[in-house]
Amino acid sequence: MPKAIWKDTVVAQSDETVMVEGNHYFPPESIVQEFFRPTESHTVCPWKGTAGYFTLTVDGQQNTDAAWTYPEPKEAAENIRGHYAFWKGVTISD
Questions:
Q1: Which of 25, 49, 54, 62 could form a disulfide with 18 if both were Cys (CB 3.0 to 4.6 A apart)?
Q2: pLDDT digits (tens, 9 = 90+) for 18-37
Q3: What's phi and psi for 33, nearest 5 deg?
Q4: Phi and psi of 21, rounded to 5°?
Q5: What is the DSSP string of the chain?
Q6: CA distances (Å), 41 to each of 8, 9, 13, 14, 27, in order?
Q7: How far apart are CA 29 and CA 64, in angstroms?
Q8: Entry pTM
């Protein structure tokens, strides 16, 4: 089962991730909410839409904008609506 891990802590876990462009997108119910805080950062993908970012906080350490989601994706990316993906040192293990 894929897990998103940062600082030896599982921040998301699901056997129902969606792979898009080499990234596991975790369903919203699979994340550990206490580690996520929304930021003001946004990026725009031409085919997925506008992504919003989250800072992860584990044991008092922050990883700014380490997770993102598409809350209102374009039609082509509807399958990842509200799912979370990771970067910036967050590892994905199976």
A1: 25
A2: 999 999 999 999 999 999 99
A3: -50, -35
A4: 50, 40
A5: --EEEETTEEEEE-S--EEETTEEEB-GGGB-GGGEEEEEEEEEETTTEEEEEEEEEETTEEEEEEEEEBSS--GGGGGGBT-EEE-TT-EEE-
A6: 25, 24, 24, 25, 21
A7: 21
A8: 0.96
